[in-house]
Every structure is written in structure tokens, then in C-alpha cells.
Specification:
434 Repressor (Amino-terminal Domain); Rossmann fold; 12 strands; 16% strand; elongated
């Protein structure tokens, strides 16, 4: 395999000149640059990426840490980040950490050792915030809000408004016995969604009815069975995310409970699957594309700035589909 010295001999320049052309560290005369590029192409030379990253303190890599690849929300977010990074000449390294703090720590250590240009963390693990302050590379936290300011930015949605919109839509559709399947309350995203539902119910004289569930399809199946036993008069369900909403529908269908005629259902996230299933899922839309692209922008354009825990909230919106029905259409 050809090396830098071979390319230099072929182009009639010094190895240092070849290095400058490859790394773009110092201007090179146009004729020499052209000879080097021609020699690289003729000899099939591939620069050593590891060596180049050590030299430039950059690997053209962005780390992405997600809690579970099984959750379509996070795979969709990672896909957006990957596309945005590639558009700017970067690649991503994806870590699926299974909600495990030790795996999150290990991912951060590996990215720092590899001279990653930054890391985008989608984690609700509060204990992780102590780790984030130890790294010089830019850090963006998506879909969570910690206390530490030792990150470049927090990007999240108006989850509280989403909880309100879901409850408001179900009551507008004629529901009076709403049940909220809230996420685990140690999570900021889950707590804010629940509080939006709770406050709407209190303001409109509705009885607050709640069960708690992980953001997980299997957990949603068992919790739906419990919900139906505890609240047999339920006519509207606010699910903590779309995957749990889909598991709710599965149980309702199994029990021959018609959706939306007997029970109406609202999810949260608006993952691609929400519009592909039948009936199509009414849900709260999170602007996943905008959040993912903004995360890459912060890493690449603002990563050199001091970490100060800046916050950016993205608006949510209701997407009415077939699991709810307005009173007028009944």
C-alpha cells in the first residue's frame, strides 16, 4: 500500500508538502497541490485517518449516545443526525447504551480518546451529568434537561404543552373519563408531559386518573391490562409515547374494544410508524428533524464557545388521525 513518501516521490515534492495538502494546514502552491492530488489518485493512496485525527485534533466524527435502539424515536433521531453530519463532511459513531450508566461513561471515554469533534447525548440518566463536566469536547444533550451547565446546549420540546394538547383534544372529541399513562416520573420528559395533562384536568373539572409505565412496548401491554381493570369507564387514553400507544391499541383490539368508537387514544412523538399502522395514530408531534439538525449545528458551529448550558425548547403540535374522532364526525 502506497504511503506519504511514495506519493511525495511520484509528485516530486517533500512528504511535508503531501501532508499539508491532505490536512489543509498550510497553503500549498497550486501546481504542487495539483501534482500531489494526481499522485494520490494514480497510486490509490488512502490517508491514515487515525494519524490525521491525532495531528489535527479532529476525527471528523460526532458521537451519538442513545438509550435504546429499540425505541423508534431514538433511531429516527440518530438517522437525522447522521444525514446532517454527512452533509457537512462528518460521520457519526452510534452508541446504544441500554439505559446503562457504565456504558454511557465508557462511550464518552472512547469518544474523547478518539478525538471526536463532539457528542450528542440522548439520555435521561441524571447521574450522567456529573460525567459531562470532565470532557473538553462539545456536548449537546437532546430530549433531557439536567442541572449542570457544563454542556454546550440542551435541546428539548415543550413536553408540558404536549400533555395539555393531548387532554384538550380528547375532551374536544367528547371524552370525559381520561386516563394518562405517564412515563417514569424520575424523567424530565415524562414529568412535564404528565403535568400538562394534570393541570388541564384540574382547570376543567376532570378527574385525574393515572398509571405509570416505561417508554416500552412490552411494558405498555401489561400496563394497559391494569388500566382497564382499574378504570373500566375510561373513554380516552393519553399515552406517554407512540410505542406505548401502539401497545394500548393492541390490547384494546384483542379485547374487541373499538377505537375510536369506545376508547379514543393519543400518543406522543409522531414517529414514522404512527402514520403507517391502521388505524393511524393521533399523536403529539415532536420536531425530530429540527432537533437533530440543530444538535449538529451546535457541535460544529458553536462547539468552541464556553460551555454554559444554553437551552432551546422546540414547539410541539397535535396531529389528529384515526384513533380519535371529533364529536361532529360521530
Amino acid at each position: 500500500m502506497a504511503g506519504i513518501r511514495d506519493v511525495a516521490r511520484q509528485a516530486g515534492v517533500s512528504p511535508a508538502t503531501v501532508s499539508r495538502v491532505i490536512n489543509g494546514t498550510t497553503p500549498v502552491a497550486a501546481d504542487k497541490r495539483e501534482r500531489v492530488l494526481r499522485a494520490i489518485e494514480e497510486m490509490g493512496f488512502v490517508p491514515n485517518e487515525v494519524a490525521r485525527s491525532l495531528f489535527k485534533k479532529s476525527s471528523k466524527t460526532i458521537g451519538v449516545i442513545i438509550p435504546s435502539i429499540r425505541n423508534p424515536y431514538f433511531t429516527q433521531l440518530a438517522d437525522v443526525i447522521d444525514a446532517a453530519a454527512k452533509e457537512r463532511g462528518y460521520r457519526i459513531v452510534l452508541y446504544n447504551v441500554h439505559h446503562d450508566l457504565d456504558q454511557e461513561r465508557a462511550a464518552l471515554q472512547m469518544l474523547a480518546a478518539a478525538n471526536a469533534d463532539g457528542v450528542i447525548v440522548a439520555s435521561n440518566n441524571e447521574a450522567l451529568q456529573e460525567e459531562l463536566a470532565h470532557y473538553q469536547m462539545p456536548v449537546v444533550v437532546v430530549d433531557a434537561l439536567f442541572q449542570t451547565r457544563q454542556v454546550n446546549a440542551y435541546l428539548y420540546c415543550d413536553y408540558y404543552q404536549g400533555g395539555r394538547l393531548a387532554a384538550e383534544h380528547l375532551t374536544a372529541c367528547g371524552c370525559r373519563n381520561l386516563v394518562c399513562i405517564r412515563g417514569v416520573q424520575g424523567l424530565y420528559t415524562a414529568q412535564a408531559r404528565y403535568e400538562g395533562y394534570r393541570d388541564y384536568c384540574r382547570e376543567h373539572g376532570l378527574t385525574e386518573q393515572v398509571v405509570e409505565c416505561d417508554y416500552d412496548f412490552e411494558a405498555g401491554l401489561s400496563m394497559t391490562e391494569e388500566l382497564l381493570e382499574r378504570f373500566p369507564q375510561v373513554d380516552g387514553i393519553v399515552a406517554c409515547n407512540d410505542m406505548v400507544a401502539i401497545s394500548v391499541y393492541k390490547i384494546l383490539h384483542k379485547r374487541n374494544i373499538a377505537v375510536p368508537d369506545q376508547i379514543q387514544l393519543v400518543g406522543f412523538d409522531d414517529i414514522h410508524l404512527a402514520s403507517l399502522i391502521s388505524p393511524e395514530l393521533t399523536t403529539i408531534h415532536q420536531p425530530i428533524d429540527a432537533m437533530g439538525r440543530r444538535a449538529v449545528e451546535v457541535i460544529l458551529n458553536e462547539g468552541h464557545l464556553p460551555k454554559e448550558g444554553r437551552r432551546q425548547s422546540f414547539p410541539v403540535s397535535l396531529v389528529p388521525r384515526e384513533t380519535t374522532r371529533s364529536k361532529e364526525s360521530r
